[in-house]
Amino acid sequence: MSDAMLERIASWMGQGIQGRLLAQQYTAYMDTLISGIFRDTGNPENLLLLATGGYGRKELAPFSDIDIMFYAPNRDDAAAAEKILYRLWDSKIDISHAFRTPKECLDEAFKDVRTRTTLLESRYLAGSRKLYEQFRKDVYPSIAFRKQRQFVSEKLKEMEKRHLSSGDSIYLLEPHIKEGDGGLRDIHTIFWLSNVVHKIVDVEGLQTLISPQDHRRLLGAYDFLIQARFCLHLECKRKNDILSFEYQKAVAACLGFRDTKKFSGAERMMRYYYLKSRIIRDVSHAVMVLCSREYTPVFRDFTRKRLSADFLLSGGRIIAEKDDLFVSRPEKVMEAYYYAAKTGKSFSSALRERIRESLLRINRSTRNNPEAVQYFLEIMKGNRVYDTIREMHETGVLGRFIPEFGALRSLVVHEPYHLYTVDEHSLMAIRNLERLRTTTVMGLIHLKGILQGMERTDVLFLSILFHDIGKAIGRHHEEEGYKRLKSLMERYRFEPRKRNRIEVLVRNHILMSRLARTREVSDPDVIAAFAETVGDSENLKAIYLITYADMSAVNPHFWTAWKASLLRELYDNTERYLAGYRQTLTKQPGSIIASFPRREQPALAAFIEEMTDRYLIATPEAGLKEDFKLYARAKENGFSMRIDIKNDSVADVILCTTDAPGLFSRIVGYLSMKRLNIVHGRIFTGKTGIVIDKISVSNWNDFWWEGCEEDLAEGLEDAVLGMKNIEPVRQKNSAHDLYGVFIDIDNESMASLSIIEIFSQDRIGLLYDIAQVLYAGGVNIISARINTEVGLAQDVFLVQENGGKVSAFTLHELMKGLWKTLKN
Fold it and tell me: Are the C-beta atoms of residues 66 and 94 closer than 8 Å to each other?
């Protein structure tokens, strides 16, 4: 698109033209341009030009696809259509085109549901009016009204798949304006369905299906999303419908959202976006139900069952005995939700509306009402916690009953890897934990067993619900959440044991995750410190389950088999510790030596004597035996290597050689050259200089090819023995750096080790450059924990200088070198 056209659109927006009117004005401009070219290129009599898709429904954005279709009785006029198409291309108009005859329209419409929907929105542009009348009379009715059941089913399945692929929530931190849940495509879907099922041809016709209030709300949300899409396209200067962090500030300014003392313009815009997106989701769902009901048999239950003195079950829905029940007794709202959780039935539309009307009556008195509190706690003990809490949140009751959680509604906090708003993250964590009860996923069976053996699952759900309440204040939310939690505990009058457990879980909800990702989970000091914090086995189980729920709700791909294995190892080690197991060495060298042939026993004894306690504690017996074979080969050849295939495409590259300055940097440099993604590194140095390095890579399945292990071994041997120069691949990451650079040095936590933690934007060759800085600084890398996801690197190195902690002077020099490297 030309700069002149972009300036024209910006001027329209400056004149106050917004939403659908803005899209229609731009569409009309393109209509004039394209139809003029059609007429100027001979205006063929037997050819019709139609606008289809988004262009057909007059919803063009600056960089939208412009879809057109040439329609003719046969293909005799294909050459004329091609001539017009070339003229359009010469005019720098990006066109997506098709040429179809009547038969081809019908064949392709019933072959592909997407083609059918683009034809549903076909609109006259230029050419033969006679052909257009023939298309509307003979072709369009078949496209619109044949195989209706199939069309409805396919569009609903398509919508479900689209929502899942785009995050399955409207509360994404970086939502997809068009394809996401509550996005423009949901509005398009109800247009298509209502057209096919009820013959409604425009947005105004939806008034026959929904209330006037919902119709006004839908049009307002529709206008806002179109306006936001225009602003995003103008800012990006390309087709882009993902409202990512780097564009939110500019789009907010374009839409007129300004900074306030409490919130930035971008945060205010996102909260408004979620409000409008939720309207689209709710109204769209109602229309979809009405349309699909035409083809789905509905069982009507006319029985009435009394649930209590105030609530009944009628027609499969919960209703209130009196319409004004909540006027004088707003605490009864919580009783209604209790019966929803107990029966699994939903509210009638009238009851739901009465609850919405009573929100302002839910005040401090209601929150402290023993009856309301008791019903809420019973909900948390039940089997429908997520569904009930979700409904309470959607209607606004949860935020009124627990204002500490209400402050999190649609709250945008930019944190690494997080995909959802704070409230949505908490609700998804509850959902994921509850799903463990019935899961059949093999990797989660262990967690399922722990959950089933828990004494009080309500403690878990309450802890998850409260775990992020401190984020309404800002950073250091664990401590802030703990302070706010105290008033909640007093309000609910929990007994000391239950209160203490919730406080421990909320205060330490990220501890297990942080230890597993940044420390050696086999280190006795790490295990002892973690065990002291959790206190007992029940707390350990609870924090393990909460860690899973919390991590799995960060984004759909954050929980992996690799992270699960680290957490499982930390859990198992800590469980043994709490059970009284305090032995430093888990292996008995004598029994291991005796299991080998007599002729190999002296060499094995020498190997065990060579390696440190740290190695013997961290290495399973089977691994020790395999490492001994590496050691024996390395003693003869100077180098040996093997590959241990694990799970989730993770493999351990294990090599044995003699220690040398810069060894780790040469290893990671060579692996980076091979485009292997390093996620973990353990370095074990023997008493006389033999080294066993264990490097875990996460993309082994993608890397693997026949003969790759031999090639990798040969290349690594040349690299570590200095026979090959390392030429690491480096690539500057051009993505927007939202989080900056963070370097933390801890010289207190461990007795003889210094901890260097680095957080920065990832790039190819980064790990090699960090290792080179540490090598140049004269420190030895004892262990490395590498975490790289979605373009961010979070790496932790345990280092020593001259066999002990790193000196203050060296740490200062390392800080300068790392800062320079990470900023370049």
Answer: yes
Those residues whose C-beta lies under 8 Å from the C-beta of residue 466, and which sit 6 or more positions away, are: 404, 405, 481, 485, 488, 502, 506
Pair 201, 224: CB distance under 8 Å: no
Tell me whether strands 690-697 and 678-685 are parallel, antiparallel or unpaired. antiparallel
344: left (phi over 0), alpha (psi -120 to 50) or beta: left
Can you name the residues that pair with 420 across neighbouring β-strands?
172
Cβ pair 269, 247 in contact under 8 A: no
Interatomic CA distance for residues 305 and 315, integer angstroms: 9
What is the residue-averaged pLDDT of the chain? 88
CB 389 within 8 A of CB 398: yes
E strand or H helix that includes residue 656: strand 651-658
What tokens were used for 144?
Answer: 């619109």
Residue 276 CA from chain centroid, whole number:
21
User: CA nearest 218: which of 192, 191, 195, 258?
Assistant: 191
- Look up the pTM and report it: 0.82
Burial class (CB in 10 A: 0-12, 13-18, 19+), 8: middle
- Beta-strand ranges (E) seen in 64-161 are 66-71, 95-100, 123-127
pLDDT of residue 751: 78
Say how many Å lie between the first and final Cα of the chain, rounded.
Answer: 34
Quick check: helix, strand or coil at residue 644?
strand
Distance of CA 437 to the CA centre of its chain: 22
Q: Would residue 661 be called left, alpha or beta, if left means φ above 0 and alpha means ψ between -120 and 50 degrees?
A: beta
**pLDDT score for 558:** 86
Long-range contacts of 611-614 (CB under 8 A, 24+ apart): 611/684, 611/686, 611/687, 611/692, 612/684, 612/685, 612/686, 612/687, 613/584, 613/585, 614/523, 614/684
Least confident range from 5-9, 23-27, 653-657: namely 5-9
pLDDT at 731: 58
Instruction: Count Cβ atoms below 10 Å from residue 710 Cβ, excluding itself.
Output: 10
Residue type at 107 in one-letter notation: D
- Work out whether the CA dihedral 693, 694, 699, 702 comes out positive or negative: positive
- For 758-769, the pLDDT digits (tens) are 888 877 778 888
Report the SS3 class of residue 655.
strand
Report d(CA 46, CA 28) in Å as an integer.
Answer: 24
Cα-Cα-Cα-Cα torsion 178, 179, 180, 183, nearest 10 degrees, comes to: 40
| Contact present, 570 and 520 (Cβ < 8 Å) | no
C-alpha 641/C-alpha 633 separation (Å) is: 9
Structure tokens at 137: 């009379």
Q: How far apart are CA 120 and CA 606, in angstroms?
A: 79
Torsion (CA) 439, 445, 447, 450 in degrees, nearest 10: 100
DSSP per-residue codes, 313-360: EETTEEEES-TTHHHH-TTHHHHHHHHHHHH-PPBPHHHHHHHHHTGG
Distance CA 276, CA 730 (A): 43
373: number of CA atoms within 13 Å, CB side?
Answer: 15
Model confidence over 309-353: pLDDT tens digits? 999 998 889 999 998 999 999 999 999 999 999 999 999 989 999
* Model confidence at 476: pLDDT above 80: no
Angle at 653 between CA 648 and CA 658, to 5 degrees: 160
Q: Token digits for 333?
A: 């709202």
Q: What letter represents residue 321's amino acid?
A: E
> Distance (Å, rounded) from C-alpha 511 to C-alpha 490?
25
- Pairing of β 639-645 and β 317-320: unpaired
SS (H, E, C) 36-65: HHHHHCCCCCCCEEEECHHHHCCCCCCCCC
